[in-house]
């Protein structure tokens, strides 16, 4: 029988993990964690500057707002023409597996923040979700990292030990 090869993180993932790990502080007594400010920006790939990231972030913010506005108008127009249509959803693919999802509902009953017992009927209620996929949780480096953490936890936290 062949020996099962233990999976390891790619060297660049392990190196970045070491950097991030040294920037993390955990207060186990209070159950709180923090990280050194700027750690993400400080470790961007050489060809990606903070300026590029900020421009992309600004574009994403603008795109999401514009997308909601355009889809919201199209949804309301569709609902006006179809009295039984109560909600519409749209998923817009972005770079990689990232996406922005919009949902517009004809109406929704909410509660007044000042008077929780008072119902308010709102029209054109919208929800926007921006999803950034690092990796499929069951594939690639993320799968390996998850497996390694599970194994590490078993070794260090298991009651059987």
Please sum up the structure shown.
The chain is of the alpha+beta class and 161 residues long. It has helices spanning 11-23, 39-42, 50-81, 140-157; strands spanning 24-27, 32-35, 87-93, 99-111, 119-131. It has two domains: 10-43, no CATH class; 46-157, no CATH class.
Write the layout of secondary structure elements.
Elements: H1 11-23, E1 24-27, E2 32-35, H2 39-42, H3 50-81, E3 87-93, E4 99-111, E5 119-131, H4 140-157
Antiparallel strand pairs: 1-2, 3-4, 4-5
Describe the protein in words:
- The two termini are 28 Å apart.
- 42% of the residues lie in helices and 25% in strands.
- It is elongated, with a radius of gyration of 23 Å.
- Strands 3-4-5 form a three-stranded antiparallel beta sheet. Strands 1-2 form a two-stranded antiparallel sheet.
- The mean pLDDT is 90.
- The chain is an alpha+beta fold and 161 residues long.
- The protein has two domains: 10-43, no CATH class; 46-157, no CATH class.
Give, in order, the helices and strands. Answer: HEEHHEEEH
Structural class: alpha+beta
In helices, the fraction of residues equals: 40-55%
Number of strands: 5
Shape: elongated
**Count of runs of 4 or more consecutive helical residues:** 4
Regions with little confidence, pLDDT below 50 for 5+ residues:
none
Question: Which characteristics define this entry?
Answer:
single chain, 161 residues, alpha+beta, 2 domains, three-stranded antiparallel β-sheet, two-stranded antiparallel sheet, 4 helices, 5 strands, 42% helix, 25% strand
């Amino acid at each position: 029988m062949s020996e099962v090869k233990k999976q390891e993180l790619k060297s660049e993932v392990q190196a970045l993990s070491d950097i991030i790990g040294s920037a993390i502080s955990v207060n186990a007594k209070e159950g709180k964690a923090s990280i050194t400010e700027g750690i993400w920006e400080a470790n961007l790939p050489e060809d990606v500057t903070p300026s590029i990231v900020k421009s992309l972030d600004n574009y994403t913010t603008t795109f999401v707002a514009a997308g909601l506005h355009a889809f919201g108008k199209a949804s309301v127009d569709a609902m006006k023409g179809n009295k039984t249509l109560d909600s519409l959803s749209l998923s817009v693919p972005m770079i990689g597996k990232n996406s922005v999802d919009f949902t517009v509902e004809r109406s929704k009953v909410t509660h007044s923040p000042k008077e929780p017992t008072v119902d308010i009927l709102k029209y054109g209620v919208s929800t926007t979700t921006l999803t950034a996929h690092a990796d499929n949780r069951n594939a690639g480096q993320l799968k390996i990292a998850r497996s390694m953490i599970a194994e590490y936890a078993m070794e260090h936290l298991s009651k059987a030990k």
